[in-house]
# Entry
Amino acid sequence: MPKFAHMSDVHIGAFRQSELKSLVLDAFDMAIDRCIAEKVSFVLMAGDIFDSNIPDLTSVRRAAAKMKQAADAGIRFYAIYGSHDFSPNYSSIVDVLDGAGLFTKAEVMSTLQGQVQLSFVRDPSGAKICGISGRKLSIDRDEYAVLDKGALEAEPGFKIFIFHGAIEELKPPSLEQMEAMPASSLPAGFAYYAGGHVHSHQSKSLPGRPNVTFPGPLFATDYTELLQLANGDPRGFYLVDFDQGGVSDVEFVPVKVCDVVEVHYSAHGKSSVQVAKELTELASDSNVGGKVALLTVEGELSDGKTSDIDFSAIRKRLMASAPLMVLSNHSHLTSKEQAKLAGPPKPVQVTERELFEKEISRVKSSEQKLRGEKGVSLALALLKTLKEGKKENETKGEFEGRTSRAGLGVLGLEATDR
Ligand SMILES: [Mn+2]
# Structure
């Protein structure tokens, strides 16, 4: 029986550290090797294949070489953008690979009388695939609202819908806050719904919409997800048996590239001297060879400062057992002594206002609006404008023009034409 694979949220190019970037690609290699061994007809990539629209090229080169190997084995790839690798003007790596013939973009969209029309991409196996990409700022939700579902539902044959967004009925409790749409937004009567965006795996059949499936990442994309791996959360993709009659089996295939372990230490109620000593011993005794080690230190020191603890020395000790990588997190380590001095941290906005209030007396200007409370408000408004970064795909010139126009607007000055 023919098979297809369904992956999503691989986030190739994620992580700053080259060792972790490489592990993301190792997971991708393992998944593709399995697809080749299983002789799948095609692979669905439901968005966020890459961590950004223009990821680092070393990662792209490795991923493209692997896909080429699969393509040479006769495997076809159908992809949509996610929210990370989307670009509004066709300058995403997804478009590059589509242009090079390695991918086929599964979103073929047009608008007719205010309605969104989708066209099917036909795979040689007979499967008909269509879908909607993820976008930044959830613009895609509007597209579902005006989607011509009737035409899609009327199409006969074995149909797959590919999408990038959370579905209310399948939202994991840990992602309560995530924006989601009801399953009724999806056209009914397809054989399989290949989802992306939700970073945990799940497959569920809903009335009229069977096999609504999210694979989640193949490895991890940030520190929190590395912690999930340390806690034993499985990662992988789906293998699906199908024929023209429909889907007969949906199987989750775990992918594991390495062990991830957390070395957890509570410093609560201990002195900085004691913590430094105990952490050094803990690091010397921990065997994290061949693993990714996450060192978490938290709690409030009874005595001494957090800076008394030499974390780089402790890290070095951990490195002695030759781990793949050591990441440490001590952002939740505090001390009684420092808390007394500094008080609880203030929100950024409060700090900014306080700084301006302190400095405003130094402004010597006859312009009333630059002084006193008015001056503080103006400075805050200007700062807010200047903080707006360069927009995706905005050129340097466009960015500078927009920023100076907005700044002059805040100051109540007219921009002069050059
Ligand atoms: Mn994602």
In short: The mean pLDDT is 89.
